[in-house]
Amino acid sequence: MASRSRAPRAYRIAPWRRLRRIVLLATAICLVPAGVSYLENITEPHEVGFGVASVEWMRGHGGNGIVSQIENWYYTLTAPSKGGPTLGSLPAVGVAGGTGPGGASRPYRPPRIEPLIHPALPGEGVWRPAAAHAGPEPPVLLTTFRSDPEYPQFVAGVAWIDSRRTRLAYVPGLAEPPEISNRGPAEVPPARRRSLVATFNGGFPLETSNAGLVYRGHTVETMVNGIATLVEYRDGRGDIVRWEHGANPGPRVWFAKQNLPPIIYGGRLNPNLSDGPEWGETVNNAVRVWRSGLGIDRRGNLIYAVANDQTVGSLAEILERAGAVRALELDINEDWVSFISYRGRGAADPSNLLPDILRPPSRYLTPDERDFFAVYARGRW
Amino acid sequence: MARARRITPGAEARRALLVDVLAAIALAVLALSLAAGLGVVGFFALPLLVLGLLWIGGERLLGGIRSRSS
Fold first, then answer.
1. Which residues of B touch A65 (CB under 8 A)?
2. Is residue B2 part of a domain?
3. What is the domain count for chain B?
């Protein structure tokens, strides 16, 4: 039996292996707080899918630039091609009982949106009441039209909201705005559903809009000059303005929601619609995605527009064609745009403005993550 | 003159591991404090860790195959 004692071998590890070990240990340590935060977020109840909730967590935790860059690449690679066959029909919107332009003895009705593609399809640009029981003065009218001759399959949905017959309300969501007192139910309050005529999505989240918010007269986020602002005053009058009143909203403002610079102002398209950095920290202005916007016509009535595959510029053109003289972009992407009208009393029979809007028509009748606007009929309904 | 203490390879390995762990903690603290948020940290750290573990796993697998074939 061999009795020769063997000297222990010296410990040897290559420097690059140690460096690799340090880096991997550091990444594992970093993932602990990130993982805890992510799991806390993802296990909360969400109305959106796992993927969207994960992306939103990332956006909200410093990753907005990364997400936006990936979205830009994705949407650029999957951009629609120009041309192709035109549509044979448009999706049906609203209820029967078309309404023509108002005459001397009739209340004002907006003129038909002149079709861009000829021959026009049946009902193209023709306003129809949103609700079955609206009577001779429906507070909300709906229509659709093909918005771009170069892309004959694009369809824009447009809603006209009579400011004399409606009142707008801002409703905070469960998670947006993030910091707010008196958040409310994050859905249309059941007690107010009797007079509900429509709901639509809000603007960008505060974190990505870098803009202000006033809710019930209190500043939630400091107002920013030069930004397009949907404002409602305490007397119930609504407007879309370019904010020039500084940080203090003043006593007359009931709510004010800002989002990016105006896309239409003084009856003209913003000349900087092709200037990327102006249009927020999300996907850039030229990327074609679901987009929504809100305008106001010469008489102070609101005009909401939504369509897939739009740039900031083409969305502005839709609103301009529908009669808007001032307008702002609202939220974008398929997960966030919604315009819902209620065809029956008491929020019954909700219907999306366009059939391919992703979120269900019941969206705002249950708590929603994002803020939104509710349109209530004034007076008897 | 004091005689140099003999350090066993095992002790030397543990000492190196301790130094590496301390360096990793310092690196992680630096990354967490410099990053824009936990989302950015997670976005880069998770694939890095997965790739690193696959690398180590691949190495061990190849080493095992080599030792069995020799």
1. 36
2. no
3. 1
